[in-house]
Amino acid sequence: MESNVDPDEARAALAFLDDDGARLAERVVTPWWYHPIVAAIVISQALPGTWGVALLPLAIVAIPLLMLAYKKHSGVATTQPAGPRSRRLMLMLLVIVVLALVSTLVVKLTDSSPWWALIPAAIAAVATVLLGRRYDAVLRQELALPVSARR
User: Fold this and answer.
1) What superkingdom does the record give (predicted)?
2) To bridge 143 with a disulfide, which of 2, 5, 25, 137 should be the other Cys (CB 3.0-4.6 Å)?
């Protein structure tokens, strides 16, 4: 199969795509409200009585609704990491949140003082904010790279 594409045109198109990635990277920022909502999901499990049961579904429903609103506002929505570093950070954060939720559930099931659940909740909240900000920075760096350099 023979191609009729001019090499200079192909290079110009690739350069445009790389520039487009750099412009996209400037616009991608996780909204300020995202990290507190994730922390609220974990903290909700530490709350006594029905407060945790009520807060969890509200937080889970709020995330996609607020993400849709943010997409309409900014014109950008990213739901996947752009490269290996952002993928690693996302997995680290996911593991921490899952472990915190499991730890909080263990505290509830063992009839321990609900105050013990604040420890994993606090760890998850801090990790969500710190790793979330780091994820944003790495994601922007990876999006600014040429597509061929991301993997």
Assistant:
1) Bacteria
2) 25
> How far is residue 49's CA from residue 30's CA, in Å, rounded to a whole number?
32
Report how many helices (DSSP H) and strands (DSSP E) the chain contains, helices first.
5, 0
Predicted confidence (pLDDT) per residue in 43-93, tens digit: 777 777 777 777 777 777 777 777 777 777 766 666 677 789 989 998 998
At residue 32's C-alpha, the angle toward residues 30 and 35, to 5°, is 80
d(CA 95, CA 74): 29
Question: Nearest Cα to 41, choosing from 52, 50, 31?
Answer: 52
Token match 């472990």: residue?
99
Side chain identity at 4, as an amino acid letter? N
Note the pTM of the prediction, 2 decimals: 0.69
